[in-house]
């Protein structure tokens, strides 16, 4: 890839990368990516529409699911312009302000997703361990506060990152290894010490994803203890079945994250394509799979979506008549 070495341009521009060495196939590679993005948008908008229009789904569990769908939709849209821009138009150049803005939204929404998954585990804990107080504990006002606190915590913790990056001089190549901007990658291009960025980045991960994962594990330990104390085998299965969708969402979020971390730390010998694929899996698989999992495993969502399609089909038949 040709990189412009004009010093004034270097100070204002980064260069994104698609699949290096496969530039001639980018148009073909764009087809599955376009399909994934389209499925993510349609799937999450469908979940949001069903929850919004069906009064019977105006319950805490589905409010949290709507938060998850909104977060997944935002995470998808934050990477779509640059990823598809590279594949379709070979648009590799991105200004530093735009790059830092994209970085802010990607990292903030990733942390919001972790917080929402924690809120959903609290919802399952209250529903199973203290069902009589479920409506009293998870009131609409409290749910709104939980959602706002998730967004504020994530945004405030990520907000310093662009400013920490802005203070650097970037004397090395301005070519990034991905089709979007990430803090870890940009800071490695700096000329000076990046120790502060490293420490702050670890602090953010520890007090968000680290704490959230521990609390999710604790909530399920308490849920399991409560379920095992239920005498009826059928009731135990019914209680656990209400958690299956959320457990799948948690695994879809944390397994790619752990895999990406392991590849970055121990996979220097692996081809660059493996690193790229793992990063795309981390960012795209949860938004892609969460609506599918909840549509399949949650009976109420599945039934409402089926009714919507039946209604649309009946309208089509009516127009033909």
UniProtKB/TrEMBL annotation:
Membrane-spanning intervals of the chain: 28-51, 63-88, 94-122, 143-165, 199-223, 244-264, 276-296
Domain G-protein coupled receptors family 1 profile: 43-294
Mode of membrane association: Multi-pass membrane protein
GO cellular component: plasma membrane
Subcellular localization, as worded in the UniProt entry: Cell membrane; Membrane
Main subcellular location of this protein, as a coarse class: membrane
GO biological-process terms attached to the record: cellular response to lipid
InterPro entries documented for this protein: GPCR_Rhodpsn, GPCR_Rhodpsn_7TM, Olfact_rcpt, OR51/52/56-like
Gene3D superfamilies cross-referenced by the UniProt entry: Rhodopsin 7-helix transmembrane proteins (1.20.1070.10)
Molecular function in Gene Ontology: G protein-coupled receptor activity; olfactory receptor activity
Record-linked SUPFAM superfamilies: Family A G protein-coupled receptor-like
A Pfam family it matches: 7tm_4
Source taxon at top rank: Eukaryota
Keywords for the protein's UniProt record, in alphabetical order: Cell membrane, G-protein coupled receptor, Membrane, Olfaction, Receptor, Sensory transduction, Transducer, Transmembrane, Transmembrane helix
Role: Putative odorant or sperm cell receptor.
Matches recorded under PANTHER family: OLFACTORY RECEPTOR 51G1, OLFACTORY RECEPTOR 56B1-RELATED
Assigned protein family: Belongs to the G-protein coupled receptor 1 family.
Protein name in UniProt: Olfactory receptor
Lineage: Eukaryota, Metazoa, Chordata, Craniata, Vertebrata
